[in-house]
Amino acid sequence: MIKIEHLQKQFDGCTVLRDVNAEIHKGDVVSLIGPSGTGKSTLLRCINMIDGPTGGKIYLDGEEITAEAYPMEEVHRKVCMVFQSFNLFEHLSVIENVMLPQVSVLKKDRQSAYDEGMKLLSSVGMAQKSSAYPASLSGGQKQRVAIARTLAMNPKIILFDEPTSALDPSCVDEVKTVIRNVAKSGVTCLIVTHDMDFSREISNRVFYMDQGEIYEEGTPDEIFEHPERERTQSFVRKEKSLEETITGRDFDYPGFMSKIFEYGFKSNASSALIRQTQLASEELICSLLFSRLRDPFTIHVFYEYDSGKQQMKITAEYDGDKVNILDPEASGADPEDALSRQQTKLSLRLLFSMLEEFGYSYREEKRCPNTIRLSLKKLS
Known about the structure:
There is one protein chain. This protein has 380 residues and is α/β, with parallel strands linked by helices. It has 12 helices and 15 strands. A hairpin with a 4-residue loop joins strand 12 and strand 13 (311-318). Helix 4 (110-123) packs across helix 5 (139-151). The longest helix is centred in the last third of the chain and has 22 residues, at 271-292. The chain is elongated and about 80 Å long. The two termini are 45 Å apart.
């Protein structure tokens, strides 16, 4: 359906896309993932010809849409985009937003456009808001209207440019549900997303983009579980985990707790498990590690959520002499700053009540030779 050959795009001498080659087949649902600034959104805008490429060719059903003589209105009728910022007309009601492209581009009469618009608004759960104006809608509602407006064009291909990134967490699921239904309908979709779980669930193919090119592609299982190339492996590993480095007792504690919440939410962990992860982190770092380590110190802490087991794993690596902070008898680097034996046992008792497994190891050759590994209990 779509064939891309040696696509390039430059802005003011800066190369955003350097040599993109791909084929997208009818009915494919392709997720585009990768670091920010690597050209994912630009690729969508080139496919839609919102931004014409600097070099290379794009074919749609065998016709070169990058050819100078190819009519742009035909491209925009066949290939439609859903933007992260919705792009609704604020002075038009919801139904008028959905009717407009049908009347102006497809040349439908207003009654037919209205009937089709109401049908599509119903399919995305927005029929009851048909007479409302965008200013009165939540972000999730605006995005659902934008999707209905795109569907009204009956496009061959829908491009989703980070469709949930501008939404409040409470609105994300409603938009994902609508996109799932669109994907199941057989429409060819390309989706730029940073939500790895959503990408894995909805796609039959994944393009990992890096440095302006499609660096690796494959099925969701191939990309997320068995990536072959080094940069893909590094990206997937980082996306699956949260890493933080703490170098003093005056670190940004509220910001740290917020990062744990955001990582847990992005990973679809339960709110109870996210809270338990925060509590376990507070006991591990602020009560136990801070009492045993001498300034300046370094703590690397890693979080990884296992969606299959619905379990959070925490690894903490710290420098200094060999000291197992999970052992109540272990002495700290500075005994005068250590918690009392009773306080230490209380913190350990609270931490252990949240754990399914735990362990300690020491490797002298490492910069942070002490390692604590914790697996929190699965919560129903």
